[in-house]
Amino acid sequence: MMKKLSKKKIKEFVKNDICEIPILYSNPNIAFSIAEDFKKRICVPCWYDCREIFHADYPKANHIFVNHKKNNNNRLASFLFSIEKLIGVSKKSKYYKTVRKTGSLFILSSFWKTPLRFSLLTFLLRAAAYYNLTSYSNKVFNYCKYLNDTKNAVKMFMDGKVNYEGQMYSWYKQFKYLSIKDCEKLLS
Fold first, then answer.
1. How many CB atoms lie within 10 A of CB 8?
2. Is the pTM of this model over 0.90?
């Protein structure tokens, strides 16, 4: 049985701010993965270019690998850090380049450990990776239908309403087309 690696174990593979976990192949699309312990070898077993399937297998994670375009590493990190600063995350995520130029590793802040926040995070990272965004702005709604369909909730979240009162795991399923009033019942 495969298991997610701890942050401590993953950091053992970081040397000179580069994660040396072997990434056997890349994906032509924006995709996500995590590192697992597979028969005592570290590997990134599979890139998921479908967020829903990725979240079905990993509804929350302590780290995430993002496969993206070449030279997109620092932009993606800047984008995530701008979000964490905006919403006031006290313990920030960490970013590392990988041995692949199309891969980045984020050791996630514990803030992102809930499935709903993690679901939103992957929407945001995907939009940032596709459109080379370096900081969060409302322009993100022009680039991602799913973020646009949940615009009221995203805006509330970015305004600091980050505590969720519901039971859903999927950001999109919970907030698509909801009014501000309905979002206020779920986010505080």
1. 9
2. yes
